[in-house]
User: Fold MORN repeat protein from Paramecium sonneborni.
Amino acid sequence: MGQQCCQTCNKTTDEEKKEILVPDQIIPQTVSIYNDNSSSEFKQSIIILSKDEQYEEQPENAIPIETIKIPKQIEEYLSTLPEFNYQLNIRGQYLGAFLLKDNCQYDGEWHKSMRQGKGRCVFSNLVYYEGSWKEDKIDGYGRLIHPEHEYYEGYFNNGLKNGKGRITQNNGAYFEGEFVYDKKHGYGLEVWPDGQQYDGQYFNGSKEGRGIFTWANGDIYEGEFKDNKMEGIGIFKWKDKEYEGEWKDSKMNGQGEFRWNDGRKYIGNYKNDKKDGYGEFYWPDGKYYKGQWKDGKQHGIALYKGKDMPNERQCYFEDGKRTKWIE
Assistant:
């Protein structure tokens, strides 16, 4: 990667031919359009057609240049990446390198003064693209690289990320999945340098739908998401406990069941991560509490059975403490 192709001459020779659209009645022929100095990724086969169908020799509003100038930081980064694999379903005619009116540098194929087919481009903001073009826009399979070494490789439509692709950040974090109009949408896998990852559904750029989020310390949430937050039904597993139930704004909200590895269990209502409303708490030694909770503590009338009590009794709790028995 990082090699630059040379400019093809406007005057064709026996080994340099032009490519044009293919009428059904013409049998394609393959000929060379590159010389020994061309980079490997730009060597290709083309099709010879009738003179009436040929493209213009130079695109409009473009100035010929010897070659495009790839920014040094991008060229160095390209040398660390595998050679780009062009996946083309549309072709144009290779005319050489040009400086365009918006200060972009383009080296690739054209059709009727529009970038079309295979091409490389350095934009005025120093972003680099190599891949497929259609009607002067990035379209098809390609690779877009920013000077800060963030890059996307995948499918585009009408200049936007669309279809399957992968974004890699300069810190090693990456997202691999589906895009719709430049936003994560559909299934995707997102991984961070510290080991955190999300594997699940996205909607309009946010985690939404079913998914699994794994933290660096091993904690796992599996369930529903909305607007990048745990919301709906899901199960959160810590090393020594787990909660299964309703969530809102990434907090336990609604009905759920909390289970500890030592045998304790709570079944009831939560509000903002705290037991609130009616709930039942069971201990492994047979003790239980069935009643009201407030702000995470027993509060109100309840049925209580102690470890050594033969039967449950009605009582009243306040701020987590039993204050009286109710006869």
